[in-house]
Design a protein that fits this description.
This protein is α+β, with helices and mostly antiparallel strands. It has helices at about 10-20, 30-40, 40-50, 55-65, 70-80, 100-105, 120-130, 135-140, 160, 170-175, 185-195, 210-220, 225-240, 265-275, 275-280, 295-300, 355-365, 370-375, 380-395, 395-405, 410-420, and strands spanning about 85-90, 90-95, 150, 180-185, 205-210, 225, 245, 255-260, 285, 305-310, 315-320, 340-345. The radius of gyration is 22 Å and the shape is globular.
């Protein structure tokens, strides 16, 4: 539900800026209160002026109309609290404003802090994300390309499929190939802890990788670990029946959350809005009726209520609801007769190549591609155009057509068409 905030206030301008990105945040009095806890009015005003795309200190100084030295101090203050992220790229420090989720909402509760009221913030997040619903509905129902996807639990994949599982579908491959690995407190269970509803699942098990891990480790928001320890934590997550929900890209995955069905906002949203088929893995649970004894253990353990018990001729059997199954594999090991197994889905989901490809695809579906191209906070350049066009050319044909229609520029359309013809 929308609320008319103070027109022209720094917080209002920041909300408008956030909503130019594919993963926005619907206007609400609750959102206003959240931002007031996370940053000062002055900081909100500075944030509202920052580009959508990554930028350097020189660009920030130009936008803010201040010296580079002063701009650097402001950027460092924001980055130290994980409100913005800083990335080392070719020896240069680059900054970016992360989306609210997965982004600075989670970062604010991924460790214990004394500089903000985390209990009040947790209550506001619950009201904004769970009670009002607009935020999560917009986030997970906006299109077929989502911010995250389910990773199947590898020990539950049958040998006959194991050789056909692609590297990007394996959480272990994400761990083994990451440049940096950080472990932090689970945002969802931390929030539930303040509400007195937290479960007994491990708390310090939220995994970040690559550039996200590097910046969180740098400022003490994550504990740096090696691949071996991270694999041990993944095994611990398996033991506690947690679902692996990670960034929806094939290269340089930035996060994998280990989610419980009672606290995790992603799993709760899947159940609430019925969006399993845009977030699921490329596997699905299948039941062998001849082996099923109707014990109901799989129904109880399923994190998204995708299994039900059906009685026929006085005999109960488990039944998988295909449109609800996310293909996590949590149910498999709990079947005493091995009647359950993971099998490949007949139609594989499209997984974007990298974060740029994902953002462009999401912007295309949500009608916000022009915001990425014609960001008035950044000078339009051939390098920038080339990067976005490259991502557009990786889109399926229909999405590419939508992208061209949104751009509404004959010049850009000719460039896309010519580049596609040269492939």
């Amino acid at each position: 539900m929308g609320h008319n905030l103070t027109h022209g206030s720094p917080y209002t301008r920041l909300i408008e800026r956030l909503n130019r990105f594919p993963q926005g945040a619907p206007e609400s009095k609750l959102l206003y209160d959240i931002l007031k806890i996370l940053m000062t009015e002055k900081e909100a005003g500075l944030m509202a002026q920052l580009p959508i795309k990554p930028f350097d200190v020189k660009k920030a100084a130009e936008v803010w109309k201040m010296s580079e030295c002063e701009a650097q101090k402001n950027l460092d203050a924001l980055a130290s609290r994980a409100i913005i992220v800083d990335i080392e790229q070719n020896g240069e420090q680059i900054y970016a404003v992360p989306p609210p989720m997965a982004g600075f909402f989670e970062f604010s509760l991924m460790r214990v802090r004394k500089d903000i009221d985390q209990k009040t913030l947790s209550e506001l997040f619950y009201q904004y994300i769970t009670v009002e619903e607009d935020f999560m509905r917009d986030l997970v129902c906006g299109g077929d390309i989502q911010m995250g996807r389910i990773f199947p639990q590898e020990p539950q994949i049958p040998d006959e499929y194991a050789l056909h599982v692609l590297d990007y579908e394996r959480a272990t491959n994400v761990i083994d190939t990451a440049s940096h690995i950080g472990i932090s407190m689970c945002y969802c269970r931390h929030k539930a802890m303040h509400a007195g509803t937290v479960c007994d699942a491990p708390m310090d098990i939220c995994m970040t990788f690559n550039t996200s891990a590097a910046t969180l480790i740098k400022y003490g928001h994550a504990r740096q670990v090696d691949a071996s320890e991270c694999r041990d934590l993944l095994a611990l997550a398996y033991e506690h029946n947690l679902v692996q929900f990670g960034e929806n890209v094939r290269k340089r995955v930035n996060f994998i959350c280990n989610c419980c069905s009672c606290c995790c906002e992603a799993l709760l949203a899947i159940k609430r809005f019925g969006v399993a088929q845009t977030i699921c893995s490329n596997f699905i649970s299948e039941i062998d009726n001849a082996k099923c004894v109707g014990c109901g253990k799989c129904e109880k353990i399923c994190p998204v209520n995708a299994i039900e018990m059906i009685e026929k001729d006085g005999i109960k059997k488990a039944h998988v609801i295909p449109e609800r199954c996310i293909g996590c594999g949590v149910c498999i090991k709990h079947c005493p007769t091995k009647a359950l197994q993971l099998k490949s889905r007949p139609n594989r989901l499209i997984t974007p190549l990298d974060t740029t490809h994902k953002v462009v695809a999401m912007a295309t579906e949500r009608g916000k591609l022009q915001e990425l191209i014609f960001d008035n906070k950044v000078l339009f350049s051939h390098r920038l155009l080339g990067g976005v066009l490259g991502a557009i050319l990786k889109l399926p044909g229909l999405q590419r057509s939508f992208a061209q229609a949104q751009l509404k520029s004959r010049y850009l359309e000719r460039m896309i068409t010519k580049a596609a013809g040269d492939e």
